[in-house]
Amino acid sequence: MGLNAPELWPFIERRMESIRLQLEGKEIGFKPDFRNPKRTMAQWAPLTVAAVTFMNAADTDGDRRLNEPEVMAAIKRLLAAANTPTENSMDRPTAVAVIDKLMPDDLRRRVPARAWADWLFVIADANKDGRVSPEEMIAAYRRFQSGSDRDRDGLMDGRDLLEALGAAGAPTDPDPMR
């Protein structure tokens, strides 16, 4: 089994026509959204469900790109779900409980809440006091965003998010193709 490569010149002609029509606004181009583990690169598949879950939870304007105010609002919702004032920090047991409470079943079946809480503390507990604050969590987002924002638009899209999760050693799904 192998790839059936298209004939080069007819492919180039069709591609040029498609690009011309896109530039004229007469055709919609394809932009991968990195939502399906079976349609992403193999190294991203174990993180795809988590990335989609995070994007769905934080992307309040529906553009499939995260900005800092959306992430800060998501952090505040996380703390509110933990019954923690938004200016306070939370400890690891609280983080495990609230992440488990907020996680959709599909993600919970793939990676347990404890793994996500442990990872959160590795990446965000900058002062190593056993608690994560909103400031520490947003600082972690800023590090991810600046390190994976290849197009320098200040936003984190699906690809940026997958790259950031992978680079930061996020928990992975042991069977992403299920």
The largest pleated sheet is described as: 2 strands, antiparallel
Specify the overall morphology.
elongated
The oligomeric status of these chains comes to single chain
Cα distance spanning the termini: 22 Å
* Beta strand count: 4
Please, how many helices?
8
Low-confidence stretches: none
Helix content: 55-70%
Give the SSE string. Answer: HHEHEHHHEHEH
- Residue-averaged pLDDT, rounded? 91
Q: Which structural class should the secondary elements be placed in?
A: mainly alpha
Strand order of the largest sheet: 1-4
Q: How much strand content do the residues show?
A: under 5%
In angstroms, what is the radius of gyration?
Answer: 19 Å
Write the layout of secondary structure elements.
Blueprint: H1 8-23, H2 45-58, E1 65-66, H3 68-81, E2 90-91, H4 92-102, H5 105-110, H6 113-124, E3 131-132, H7 134-148, E4 156-157, H8 158-167
Antiparallel strand pairs: 1-4, 2-3
Report what the structure shows.
The protein has 178 residues and is mainly alpha-helical. Helix content is 55%, strand content 4%. The protein has helices at 8-23, 45-58, 68-81, 92-102, 105-110, 113-124, 134-148, 158-167; strands at 65-66, 90-91, 131-132, 156-157. The strands form 2 sheets. Strands 1-4 form a two-stranded antiparallel ribbon. It is elongated and about 60 Å long. The chain starts with 7 loop residues before the first helix and ends in an 11-residue tail after the last helix.
